[in-house]
Amino acid sequence: MTSFIYNPALIRQKQMEIEFLSFFHGHGFDIIDLPVVESFDWHGMTEDDLRLMPQRETWIQDGTVHALRHDWTNSIVRYLNKYKIDAERAVYSGPVFHSGNETKQLGMEVFSDRTPEQQESLGLLIGFMDDRFGGLPKTAVISHYALLPTILGERILEPAIRRALSQRSESALKQLLGDHPLPALLGDRPEAQVHKLRSEFPEIGPVLEELTGWEETLRQSGIEAVYPDITALPSQSYYDGVFIRLYGEGRTAPVASGGQYTARKKAFGMGIFY
């Protein structure tokens, strides 16, 4: 005989999803859903698709590659490129699967290049976390994907340099870049890094000003510890603007992350992992 056990944690999870969807729907976001199983045509795969395949749970049936959803933004970008979402702002909830592990995700997307509208949505998400998750995230790490291409030029494409950046290895970067100022910057405090960037690379001023605006949004939302990261590399080719990670107290993994990307037009999205 099969028995069913009452699971309060599962009830709370479902209630959280309903509250999140209802909260953002009340602020003008359309609720969307996409299949958890995605289908790929081998001949139509992009470089992003191929790069992510080792991290996906995949199988082949009738000559078609199927995979469990790896990332909501990736799924939305793929959907936008194939079809059309009429929504200007969207909210979602559902699982994602990374290298055999399932994670629950709540998220929102703004399909607009208007920065104030994007920043307003970020404030809404942080406010929801403060109200429903028992407090604000304590720390934010912020970057911009135009920083490294401006600092390094075409050398940003070199695999050895990208590997050293992902490992934050000053010694490896010094060996690869010689007397370039970037390796020395990594040893400085974040505030000093930004000051030196302005001095060493005057052309980067507009990007740093853009970051300052997002930093102000985070501080106005109650997050006082905001740190720049000049080594951020996009995980997907469509990420091309500001990138933000939010951390809880004592947490080494982000509780939420996201940023600006291009999918037919500029957009912004953030996801909460819970």
TrEMBL record:
Any one Gene Ontology molecular-function term assigned to this protein's record: glycosyltransferase activity
InterPro entries recorded? aa-tRNA-synth_II/BPL/LPL, HisRS-like_core
So which domain of life are we looking at?
A: Bacteria
The family database entries (SUPFAM superfamilies) matched by this protein are listed as: Class II aaRS and biotin synthetases
Q: Which UniProt keyword terms apply here?
A: Glycosyltransferase, Transferase
User: Is Endoplasmic reticulum a UniProt keyword of this protein?
Assistant: no
Gene3D superfamilies annotated for this entry?
Bira Bifunctional Protein, Domain 2
The UniProt record lists the Class II Histidinyl-tRNA synthetase (HisRS)-like catalytic core domain at 12-269
Any Pfam family matching the protein? tRNA-synt_His
Q: What is this protein called?
A: ATP phosphoribosyltransferase regulatory subunit HisZ
Q: Per the UniProt entry, what species is this protein from, by scientific name?
A: Bhargavaea ullalensis
